[in-house]
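Subject: Sanity check before I submit

Could someone independently write out the structure tokens for this chain? I want to compare against mine line by line before I put it in a report. The sequence has 111 residues.
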Amino acid sequence: ELKFEPNFDEGSLTVSIPDDIVGTANELGVTLECGLSLLLGLSVLNDVCTIEIIKPMKELNVNAQWLVQSGIQNERPWFDMGLDGTDQVVACSDTGVDVVNCYFWDSNNGP
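---
Independent answer below. Compare away.
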């Protein structure tokens, strides 16, 4: 279903358009074509700087398991041997690139 979510504090309008809505109407009778016409109309307004597509995020952990373990679809040799991370603590920390580190410092141009 098409969803329109205005955020007046940030001056934004989020329009959610599912992939399977083409040619169908939601309960308000709004079709994809109608929604796109609205976006086209908004795009010509002086106060509108950008319009962008934001796709919803999906978890793909099921694929990541075999990609990391074997690279062969649905083969998980670590899991098959009982190595599943139970009772393990893992941490990953990253603050970004330290541009003043000697390995990244350019003596001619600075960081």
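---
OP: Matches mine. For the report I'm noting this point. The helical segments are 32-43, 61-69, 77-80.
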